Amino acid sequence: MLGAILATILFSFSAVSGARVAKLMGGTEANFWRLCLATLCLAAVAHTFGAGLAGSGFYIFILSGCIGFGLGDVSLFQAYPRLGSRLTILIVHCLAAPFAGLVEWLWLGTTLSVAQMLCGAVVLVGVAVALTPEHETHEQRRQFGTGIFFAVLGAVGQGGGVVLSRKAYELCRLAEQPMDGITAAYQRILGGVIISGLALLVVKRQFLLARTEAVAASGDMSTTEKWRKCWKWIAFNALAGPTLGVSCYQWALKTTPSAVVLPIVALSPLVVMPFARWLEQERPTKRSTVGAVIAVTGAVVLALAK
Question: For residue 41, what pLDDT is reported?
Answer without folding.
Answer: 93
